[in-house]
Amino acid sequence: MEVIEIFQHLASVVLIDRRSSVSGDRNLAKASIPLTRTIHGAEVGAGTVTPLVGFYFGAKWCPPCRAFSPVLSEFAKNNASNFSVIYVSVDHSAKDCEEFTKGKSFLSIPYETGIRQVLLEKFGVKMFPTLIVCDTRTGKVVTRWGRLA
Fold first, then answer.
1. Residue-wise pLDDT tens digits, 108-140
2. What is residue 47's three-state secondary structure?
3. Are 96 and 59 in contact (CB under 8 A)?
4. Which candidate among 7, 35, 39, 63 keeps its CA 20 to 30 Å from the CA of 135?
């Protein structure tokens, strides 16, 4: 599956940075970053500067998500130069989304944007948690089963 179209949808989105700094003592929860990346010579927006991006679909109300999120956060933190997580919330409120991602090594699509629903539909996500890993260099999905990798 080509994900360039999805990155094009994300080109104008500003992500919320929920990750802590390298030292861990400065919280960047209020910071935001624009999505920009060049794929096949065109600037289309791709999440982050890392080669691999995991689109993580989850929610605070989901018990398997609550179990998986700390593991994924630790993995993202330990592999920050090669892998970023973009959290796509299916929470019931912006407050739940913020509480769920607080302290985790995730970028987060703002709750108020309609892009969350677009991503759910484009990726065909029906169950949670789901982690879809994409290669930003090629614009292709590496795996739809990132949770099991």
1. 888 888 889 988 988 899 999 999 998 877 778
2. coil
3. yes
4. 63
Enter the pTM of the model.
0.76
71-121 confidence digits (pLDDT tens): 999 999 999 889 989 999 999 999 999 999 988 988 888 888 888 998 898
DSSP per-residue codes, 114-127: THHHHHHHHHT--S
Q: Which of 71, 69, 77 is nearest to 96 (CA)?
A: 69
Which parts of 1-148 fold into alpha helices (H)? 4-10, 63-78, 94-101, 115-123
CA distances from 70 to 76, 101, 112, 124 (A): 10, 10, 24, 24
Tracing tokens 């029906």 back to the chain, one arrives at: 126
- Name residue 9's amino acid: H
